[in-house]
């Protein structure tokens, strides 16, 4: 949510897009009954088995619990109370292939996804989380299912001509981004101080800040920026660009995260993911959520983890 973006440790995606706010999305989960609480109480426990035996236990219980953060298009509850988003829809397909019939959401804040995974509140993070070296010290990732540049939400016509973070900083443009987004770090890299950045709860609040003139731009992943401006007659998304991190262009990749002990599940998940990439089915799953062919990727978790 997504994501990507978009995010800094220990948080991803970012990224969010038009639709219900995070509060309403979480409320939608509550409408599913006791699902979230039941998921937390019945989640499979850790195993000392080499490589982990979580996959066997998920097959036996017939359900995998997904940590989501209510981020459109990455993982959220829709207006009908159904779990959807690029990561949950992909999880449904892959876990079915692995012999696990169902998936269930366990909602949390984005910054609580890794702590929640480590404390066994759910079985896997399915939130479009960016793979970063810092996160790789805490969890293990499948290979990315998408790659993502950044983009800005600006007022119609882009009156300041903003192109990227360095350009925006040089023009003293006022910035907003989402809670836990990796774009915070990207902006700081370009010269912004953390105190200069307006942090908003989600992409809808970011859009509102631009429309009201409280900031000159809201930054998120390219897919988030594209989607959120669809509902606005006052704003537009800039052309996507690759942020500079440590002096080098950094194209981010979002992926599923697993507990470090569960290498068997992660490796088996990767096998199915590669099949979907090769067949083109992965793009068909992600395309309805605003992803383009340019955002499909052969990046690996090993590359993004720094080794």
Task: Describe the structure in your own words.
It contains 13 helices and 15 strands. The two termini are 26 Å apart. The longest helix is centred in the C-terminal third of the chain and has 17 residues, at 263-279. A hairpin with a 2-residue loop joins β13 (244-245) and β14 (248-249). Strands 1, 4, 5, 6, 7 and 15 form a 6-stranded mixed sheet that branches. It has helices spanning 22-30, 35-42, 54-61, 86-97, 113-118, 133-136, 165-170, 183-190, 203-211, 222-228, 263-279, 281-286, 301-305; strands spanning 63-68, 76-77, 83-84, 102-107, 124-130, 140-141, 146-148, 150-155, 175-178, 197-200, 217-221, 235-237, 244-245, 248-249, 252-258. It is of the alpha/beta class and 307 residues long.
Summarize the structure.
The protein has 307 residues and is an alpha/beta fold. Helices cover 34% and strands 20% of the residues.
Largest sheet: 6 strands, mixed
Helices and strands, in order, run as HHHEEEHEHEHEEEHEHEHEHEEEEHHH
- Rg measurement, Å: 18 Å
Strand content: 15-25%
Distance between the amino and carboxyl termini: 26 Å
Count of helical segments? 13
How would the blueprint of this fold be written?
Blueprint: H1 22-30, H2 35-42, H3 54-61, E1 63-68, E2 76-77, E3 83-84, H4 86-97, E4 102-107, H5 113-118, E5 124-130, H6 133-136, E6 140-141, E7 146-148, E8 150-155, H7 165-170, E9 175-178, H8 183-190, E10 197-200, H9 203-211, E11 217-221, H10 222-228, E12 235-237, E13 244-245, E14 248-249, E15 252-258, H11 263-279, H12 281-286, H13 301-305
Parallel strand pairs: 1-4, 1-5, 9-10, 9-11
Antiparallel strand pairs: 2-3, 5-15, 6-15, 7-15, 8-11, 8-12, 13-14
């Amino acid at each position: 949510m997504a994501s990507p973006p978009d995010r800094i440790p220990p948080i991803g995606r970012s990224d969010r897009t038009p639709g219900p706010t995070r509060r309403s999305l979480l409320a939608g989960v509550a409408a599913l009954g006791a699902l979230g609480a039941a998921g937390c109480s019945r989640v499979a426990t850790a195993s000392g088995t080499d490589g982990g035996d979580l996959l066997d236990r998920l097959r036996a219980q017939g359900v995998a619990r997904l940590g989501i953060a209510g981020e459109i298009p990455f993982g959220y509850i829709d207006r009908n109370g159904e779990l959807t988003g690029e990561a949950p829809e992909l999880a449904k397909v892959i876990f079915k292939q692995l012999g696990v019939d169902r998936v269930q959401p366990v909602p949390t804040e984005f910054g609580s996804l890794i702590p929640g995974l480590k404390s066994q509140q759910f079985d896997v993070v399915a939130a479009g989380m960016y793979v970063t070296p810092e996160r790789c010290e805490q969890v293990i990732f499948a290979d990315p299912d998408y790659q993502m540049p950044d983009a800005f939400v600006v007022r119609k016509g882009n009156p300041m001509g903003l192109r990227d973070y360095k350009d925006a900083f040089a023009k003293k443009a006022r910035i907003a981004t989402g809670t836990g987004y990796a774009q915070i770090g990207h902006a700081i890299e370009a010269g912004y101080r953390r105190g200069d950045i307006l942090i908003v709860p989600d992409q809808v609040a970011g859009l509102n800040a631009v429309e009201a003139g409280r900031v000159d731009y809201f930054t998120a992943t390219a897919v988030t920026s594209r989607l959120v401006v669809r509902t606005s007659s006052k704003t537009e998304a800039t052309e996507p660009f690759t942020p500079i991190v440590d002096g080098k262009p950094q194209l981010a990749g979002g992926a599923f995260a697993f507990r470090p002990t569960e290498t068997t599940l992660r490796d088996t998940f990767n096998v199915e993911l590669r099949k979907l990439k090769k067949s083109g089915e992965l793009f068909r799953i992600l395309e309805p959520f605003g992803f383009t062919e340019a955002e499909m990727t052969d990046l690996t978790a090993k590359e993004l983890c720094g080794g």
